[in-house]
């Protein structure tokens, strides 16, 4: 009997959750043996393959942060280790319960009433433990629980930061392309004014002006490239790559009219309130308190909800404004194409000088820069709105 009790003590000890530092990428219990990496991590083979390639897609940021960001993945790993430990403990206790049932049957066949009752009682106790552990495991396994709320909140904040970082990176990338084109035109303009200067058709002041513009553009490009490199290293590291990895940062998809039409601040505010960590904390902090404390907390929650509602409406209005600005910038780009065609025609007919032609080209580039800026501003504000719905917005 002592041996049996000792065995039960060992079984119960297995129920104590353990933690590890690595993200779970190997079988956590016998039922997971033989599964692929994609299956172990809850993805289709195709989706997992895309996550594992060396291309950073905007739509993959949440999954990359969850699985490969050092801090977030470690937190989820420790959390998931507890679930796996409960699974293992449940399997162990079920095996012990089967042994108890077998022993009870054997004792009953031998006419040993005392041990029959004892084994049955122990089996019933094991069943209750299994049921309690199963309930705990089911609660932990849910996608959204109070237990994993701190990890989810931290993850959402990192995701929001990475999304903003990627938008900023692509903005710098667009500026770099435009500056490259500007430098080429300044170089060509300098060559022309030097030629016309030798013919007395341009002044020394004209030459100095173009030299200054060219020097400023080159200096700006160097600064831009240095900042771009820093952003790139930070961006890929936060998504789980090593700082020296060679990662392709894909283009950010445009926010479509359908995306914007789906937004409805009067309805979305309920989602934002339900997900906001500050409001959730205040609501949960009213239990077992005095009535005056509860009243004060409820009043504060009402005030916070009003502020959040105002923030949601402001973000929505920003998006509508951005949409209008983008349409205007797009019209400017279309008009600049006509300007470009006219410049090409005038230059071919000798109607304008090379300097005039290049000056007109700079104006065309400016329109393109305005369009890219408007496009990324819409992405930024749309991202902020979606983060507000996820509860990741300060109430102030």
UniProtKB/TrEMBL annotation:
**Entry coiled-coil feature ranges:** 207-234
Q: Which Gene3D superfamilies match?
A: Outer membrane efflux proteins (OEP) (1.20.1600.10)
GO molecular function list: efflux transmembrane transporter activity
Its keywords, alphabetically, are:
Coiled coil, Signal
Q: Any signal peptide, and if so, which residues?
A: 1-22
For this entry, the protein name equals Outer membrane efflux protein
Taxonomic source organism: Lachnoanaerobaculum saburreum F0468
**Lineage from the top down?**
Bacteria, Bacillati, Bacillota, Clostridia, Lachnospirales
């Amino acid at each position: 009997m002592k041996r049996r009790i000792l065995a039960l003590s060992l079984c119960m000890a297995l129920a104590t959750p353990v933690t590890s530092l690595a993200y779970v990428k190997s079988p956590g219990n016998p039922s997971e043996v033989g599964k692929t990496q994609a299956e172990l991590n809850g993805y289709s083979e195709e989706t997992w393959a895309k996550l594992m390639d060396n291309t950073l897609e905007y739509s993959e940021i949440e999954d990359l942060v969850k699985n490969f960001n050092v801090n977030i993945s470690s937190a989820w790993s420790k959390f998931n280790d507890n679930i796996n430990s409960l699974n293992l403990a449940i399997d162990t206790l079920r095996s012990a319960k089967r042994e108890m049932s077998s022993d009870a049957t054997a004792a009953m066949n031998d006419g040993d009433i005392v041990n029959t009752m004892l084994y049955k009682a122990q089996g019933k106790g094991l069943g209750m433990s299994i049921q309690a552990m199963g309930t705990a495991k089911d609660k932990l396994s849910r996608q959204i629980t109070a237990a994993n709320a701190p990890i989810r909140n931290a993850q959402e904040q990192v995701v929001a930061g990475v999304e903003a970082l990627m938008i900023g990176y692509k903005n710098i990338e667009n500026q770099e392309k435009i500056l490259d084109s500007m430098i080429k035109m300044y170089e060509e303009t300098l060559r022309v004014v030097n030629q016309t200067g030798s013919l007395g058709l341009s002044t020394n002041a004209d030459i100095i002006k173009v030299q200054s513009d060219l020097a400023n553009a080159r200096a700006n490009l160097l600064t831009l490239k240095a900042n771009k490199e820093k952003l790139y290293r930070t961006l890929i590291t936060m998504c789980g790559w090593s700082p020296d990895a060679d990662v392709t940062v894909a283009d950010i998809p445009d926010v479509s009219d359908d995306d914007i039409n789906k937004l409805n601040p009067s309805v979305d505010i309920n989602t934002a309130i339900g997900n906001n960590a500050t409001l959730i904390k205040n609501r949960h902090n009213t239990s077992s308190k005095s009535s005056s404390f509860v009243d004060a907390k409820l009043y504060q929650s009402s005030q916070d909800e009003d502020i959040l509602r105002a923030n949601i409406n402001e973000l929505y209005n920003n998006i509508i404004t951005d949409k209008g600005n983008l349409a205007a910038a797009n019209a400017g780009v279309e008009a600049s194409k006509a300007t470009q065609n006219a410049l090409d025609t005038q230059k071919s007919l000798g109607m304008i000088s090379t300097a005039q032609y290049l000056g007109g080209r700079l104006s065309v580039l400016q329109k393109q820069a305005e369009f890219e800026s408007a496009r990324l501003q819409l992405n930024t504000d749309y991202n902020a709105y979606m983060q507000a719905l996820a509860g990741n917005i300060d109430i102030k």
